[in-house]
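# step 3/5: fold
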Amino acid sequence: MALAIACVLVAAVGPITESKAAAPIFDRPHAFLAQGRSGQYKWRLVTHRSAESNVKHRPCLDLSIAQMPSPLSSTPFFSLCGSVSPFPLASAMATAVGTKDKTLVGVALPLNVRHVLIDLGSAGKRRRSARLLSESKARAAQLDQFRFAFVVVGGAHCVGGLKTFDASGRVVTDSGKQPCV
């Protein structure tokens, strides 16, 4: 399986159905997955259903990261939509502020995945537990439940590969090493 580059500093794994540099995500049902601060940056990870009809199994990941004090509500989101199975949907968004860059990576995963190993090239590999999108959030976003993971790291990085694991520690998917463009 190959990683496809969705846009500058943004990588995606698997079939992509919709990708936008700035998406009007709040005009459709959505759910907040995670948000926080890292240094001088604040970030947010949101999900919503693809604009296609009848696709509760194709979530969109919306990533936003901005230097404070700019409000996230006015910051462009990067939106990437696709299926989480058989391969995960992964997206990365990096800031472009010289040496103080930050990268936010979000991954949507099938329900059987419990852990993901994210290869960030020169930033190393990060192992994350997969969180379950709650039934209430899935209902609010008009999506089927899925698992997700995220990481925020210093510097501008791309996703150089993903390996996912089930509850027994067995490999579910392995993209292998992918070129960062």
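# step 4/5: annotate
The radius of gyration is 15 Å.
# step 5/5: archive (pending)
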